[in-house]
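Handoff note, outgoing to incoming analyst
You'll be picking up this chain. Sequence as last confirmed:
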Amino acid sequence: MISAPLCVLYTHDPDLVRRVKAFTRSIAQLRHVAESGRLDAVLEQSGPTLLILDLRARESRNLLDELRESWPDILIIGLGVARSEPLRDAEQSGIYTAEDVQIDRTHFQALIGGAFDYLKVWQENRELREETASARLPAAAARADVVTDRYGAPSMPLLRFPRVFRRFDNVDALLASVVENVADAAGVTRVGIFSKIRKGDRFRLRAGLRCLPETYELEFGERDALVRWFERQAHLVSRDSLDQTTDRTERSLLRRSLDTFGAEVIVPLYARGHIIGWLFFGHRMTGRPFDPQHLEGLMILAEHVSTVLENALLYEEITLQKTLAETLLKSIPPAIGATDENAIVRWAHPTAEQILGLSGKELLNKRVEAVGSSLARFIRGAL
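Most recent structure output, in case you need it:
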């Protein structure tokens, strides 16, 4: 969840991952990174955050120097072997703190709490500086130039969504096709769809184009701050218009969300008055910022996608219920058959086929008389 404070843990030790997860479960969200090549991407998504660095890793010394130079807005807690050289070097390097890897839960949670308090103050100060700077800008400079190009409005691929839906039995394949069409229609470099399958599930990335690998690990509950914000506000989020959000907490939440998805715009998706997910968009292919005309186009795109997604989720739910019902009926020992109101056989239990001496092919979509005149009279009488 983006609303919870975020820790990033870099280690190759699965035991340390389990311990830190247990220590932080009630106070923070933890993202584990095991490859140094992915650390920059995770930190870029996370914004100002707390990094827990395993100093026992061979590359930790070089990594520590690179992190302090490239990411001055993160706090680093180093964990190493007591009295070891890497731990002493980390203590003298100016990071937030360096501790024994066998640190106890109470002390560790106190360090985490103090680090989050520091980051909160740092974030508030940055937002105050941004507010002061934006207040000095002339109104004319704050307005984006309106540029019309071939990506200025939704294009023809939207009209193909219903036909695409009918061609796919697999919902994941459908949504993958949808994001490709949306990216082409909107002229953007990145698109992703978050949704849940059924009520009570968590929102997950169901399909994406050029999304960061870490985005696929994200989950959001119905009570998450971002989901609740969409329920209350019901409008899109644009990086260029964040300064119009007067509430600092909300502005911080939305900025963190955009960073986490690697997005410039997030548009909520609704069906029957309830949020069923959201679309996020990366930069425009032209490199130009989104102007009001383009944002209106993205809202129109989102309305089309909402319809497709609602149908896809309904199809997924019906398919699941049908599979469960058929599995249950087939597992019942007595013979069972089903007809419609016109006495046409629509389903037959395998045991019923054996008793009647007829195959499914001889029964299905045939008049009930196919099972025999005596039984047919009882069935028609019941109808």
